[in-house]
Amino acid sequence: ALKVNENDPTTTQPLVSPDFPVMSDTVFIWDTMPLRELDGTVVSVNGWSVIITLTADRHPDDPQYLGPDGRYDIKRDWEDRHGRARMCYWYSRTGKDWIFGGRVMAEGVSPTTREWAGTPILLNDKGDIDLYYTCVTPGAAIAKVRGRIVTSDQGVELKDFTQVKKLFEA
């Protein structure tokens, strides 16, 4: 941290223009985890790139996120996103036009109410994936869930992420 300098572009995040394109207007997206091999190499499967993101629905019509003037308070909604964080996946042929695939795990599979960042590892050429992630509230644990990737010319599905195993708890 001592080497970080606000005037050094190699140690600071670049400014992001307000008109930077977003992947979705209906969900918030933050921590992004590409599909990797065990050695850390980012991989594609049959020409498809896959990312897993922490995702939360936006609530523009929820009264608790409307300001005194009746307008949507996106800042307050964004600040509350962690309480409803879920892991979702996206896929792309180009790495620019991402298609929303949906939740990685169905509601109720994770033993906690929040799903937080992790790492998806492609295990073999059969499409088996281990997803290591943090499950939070109640408590906190590092967990693993195994599923698989299925691809076609039309898209990608992540399937069978149904059995979560807690590896250790804090």
From TrEMBL:
Transmembrane segments: none
Broad enzyme group: transferase
BP GO terms, sorted: carbohydrate utilization
Gene Ontology molecular function: any one: levansucrase activity
Substrates-to-products reaction catalysed: [6)-beta-D-fructofuranosyl-(2->](n) alpha-D-glucopyranoside + sucrose = [6)-beta-D-fructofuranosyl-(2->](n+1) alpha-D-glucopyranoside + D-glucose
EC number: 2.4.1.10
Keyword Transferase set for record: yes
Record InterPro entries: Glyco_hydro_68, Glyco_hydro_beta-prop_sf
Keyword Glycosyltransferase among record annotations: yes
Keywords: Carbohydrate metabolism, Glycosyltransferase, Transferase
Entry-linked Gene3D superfamilies: Glycosyl hydrolase domain, family 43 (2.115.10.20)
Family listed: Belongs to the glycosyl hydrolase 68 family.
The protein's name in its UniProt record: levansucrase
